[in-house]
Amino acid sequence: MGCDRRAFLTTVTAVTGLTALPAAQSADRPPSPPLAGLSPGVRLVPAHTMMIGLVQERGFTYEKP
Hints:
Distance between the termini: 12 Å
Order of helices and strands: EHEH
Helix content: 25-40%
Oligomer: single chain
Shape: globular
Number of strands: 2
Number of domains: 1
Strand content: 5-15%
Structural class: alpha+beta
């Protein structure tokens, strides 16, 4: 039985952490993540725990081994 839907999601924190330059960041304002380099269709979410709840509400499940 194949998978008929796929989702690729990442958190804002993950994208920011991968692209941040520690010396150039302002402590009072977090940097905005660079969205231009993401693959088409990638959705940014605030946190993985929120993401899991949102996708489960829409019928996504964990892949079975």
